[in-house]
Amino acid sequence: MKNKERIENKDRITGKQWLVIFIAGLAGQLCWNIENQWFTTFVYDKISPDPSIISWMVGASAITSAIATVLFGTIGDRSGKRKPLMVGGYIIWGITVIIFGATEFLPKNSVVLAAVAVVFADCLMTFFGAMAHDAGYNPWTTDITNEHNRGKLGAVIAVLPVVATILGSLLFGNIIQAIDYFAFFIIIGAAMIVLGLFALVMVKDSPDLKPNKDVKGFGQQFLSFFSFSVLRENKVLAWVLAIFSVYFIGFNMYFSHLTNYFIYSRGFKEGMAGIIIGVGLLCAVPLTLLASRYIDRGRFSIIMYSSVALTVVGLPLLTIAGTAANIIGMVLVGGGYMCIFQSLMILLKNLFPPEKRGQCEGLRCVFYILIPMCIGTPVGSAIIKATGIEIINDLGQTGYSAGPALFFIAAAWTLLSLVPITVYKKLGEKNV
Q: What is the pTM assigned to this prediction?
């Protein structure tokens, strides 16, 4: 009986840990939501309505995120500590969010220089965001869990980006309308600094986490990542990451342009655009609860097949005139995105080798962030320039916003996800 109690206690995630998981996870996702959703509207409103700037910004920040995650993930693995990365990362992340907002006051006589400054500021923010969230928080959540309780953790972590997107969509647009961008970024930056202090008090590294130092030194351990030996040793992991890339290339074709599409192409105010996205995603949340039942049974592929179907049906609905159709489209698209993300994140936590968890988060960044953003976002921008709607922003500058073609092409691309999903299933889903 005592042995059973010890096992149950070891498997239990404490209330203090759940508090950190929720608060730090939600705050980090809110910041990523701001970058993905509101940095783009900031660029259109304050710099220039040019989708190419967004492509450069997204691509450069994706590269920065991957490199920073591998760098700080290696540091975390070698030191056997995640807490310093979380504390220092969140505080500096907050400072850099404020710096990004200050780019609004750069002179506009040279759009090129202003665009370069915005891209640099975004990369600076991303560098420390990856330190805090990707190299610190994510592996920390894996460290404190095991195969007996990781399913519950995975479900929560999968829902956090959704909650952040809902809050960001419903609240941030109205806040920006009320106080404008710079004051908004000051508030968000200050909140992240407070989060760093919260982590200082509340976070405790797992006692099972031990330093893993390559005897050949830090440089060798850092560079070993780029040989991708982990993928050669684990084909299932490689195909799970391939699913990440293929699906999210399509996702990045449209998602960073979605809010601008509703504002500039459809004529909604920032607040209403946020409501359409937020309400749609809120209504999609129950789908993740249904998905978790199948995931607990190891039936990942059926959720991923369903996710592709939801996305392919939902994207064309975003092109139909009418708020109701757009919300239904967002329910389907949001449900598809949430469920496949939920499945893939739990799979990765199960597949990453324990001694390289921090560094392997870099693999997730490469296949989930770097490749999709560097391919999907510029392709989306090219589609917008070729088929989009000509617009004029508040500064009197002309540019283009997304048209219906973007969503049909993204839906067609998303169908390609079926290929790696099928290969993953054949390799042995039951063994994960």
A: 0.77
